[in-house]
Amino acid sequence: MAHSSRVFFPDSFLSAMCETLPDSAAFDAFIAISQQPLRRSLRVNTLKISVDDFLRQVEPYNWALTPIPWCEEGFWIAREDADDLPLGSTAEHLSGLFYIQEASSMLPVSALFDAAPEAHCVMDVAAAPGSKTTQMAAKMGNQGAILANEYSASRVKVLHANLSRCGVSNTALTHFDGRVFGPALPECFDAILLDAPCSGEGVIRKDSDALRNWTPESTQEIAATQRDLIDSAFHALKPGGTLIYSTCTLNQIENQQVVAWLLARYPAAVEVLPLDGLFAGAERALTAEGYLHVFPQIFDSEGFFVARLRKTASVPPMEKPGYKVGKLPFSPLSRKLSDEISAAARQSGLEWDASLNLWQRDKELWLFPATIEPLLGRVRFSRIGLKLAETFPKGYRWQHEAVVALACPTAANSVALTEEEAEEWYRGRDIYPQAALPRDEVIVTWQQQPIGLAKKVSNRLKNNYPRELVRDGKLFKA
Q: In the chain, where are the structural domains located?
């Protein structure tokens, strides 16, 4: 792919890189790699399948998968059929077995759980489209809770769609400017990931126009916002907690200098946890302070920056927020009613553990992560946990996202589709199944994964795959 002539480098950016890189050889290597297309990479979603089982399942496709050193679930992928079939249209992607994620963006979550493997209440300050949130959920085995915040309203929907596809059940979504969390939720989180909005200098291999609007002044403005965000995140962190600050940019103003500002502001309350031992080869991107400053030429990836900090003591609180949260429109269910609904769900092949509690809003039943409940009423959530069902006089209408997250693929009411039937399912069409149907309502599965719930109507299965997810074009394998 020859897009070398189209990569746009402002002169002042090149001057800044000259000063940042150690020598002219490193600068030449940076310019050369920036002209080359980015390697594709994916991360196996261990909420749905083990890495070994995934590798066995895709073996017939002849995908060339190369392990990513800093993420045991991550692989660079080369495919001969890539032009034929987008990775996002493969069966394994549609059923949430993997997430298409750039290799270096897997670093922050790896760094976080390396330091805080037991983190139970976690925040992702800038979460969309969901690559890091889904990676966190997998690391946590869907236990505990992740507050996943996204400032951009249009991207909250994309975030939810990705969480749903991957079977994530332990998230609560908010839609705020990240500056609110320090004042609103002081000392609430075991660990926080701030993958900060940035000037995006590291993504030029994916977007040759990424630097079209770049100016030295704009990086200063962005850094001012980043300082506000890291300050807010630091206040929301419990003493003893871990904070990851990361960006996909390359200049020191938005990276080292933002962290240096926090260290200077709270010298007695923050320490750097060096990243030299995170993976074999980490020293190649290590800064003097112990951060990872990943230039694209080092690992043939996007550019990235990661700093890992520990909060060692409380700091003076921020001014309380002035907004009103409003009354929570949900109420928790009684033990008796919860037991009845759980029993009905089990009959339909859906099960969950004590990490999720039932709440009701009008005719809707929701499963909230128990760990998030202390935060209810302190900030306004746009979506919490999983929508389990809608109640109606004859029982419950189980929801697609709950089926994907909770259904047992070997339940008594499950039906394995053929490849052709599964394709029809993803296209939103009704299915005339070859297999005998055990019940009037069945969990449909493909490759041992639940992909939806369908009702029998005479000799067909009525398709209720969500309309916004319906696919056209080529699907599955060539």
A: 4-311, 331-399, 407-469
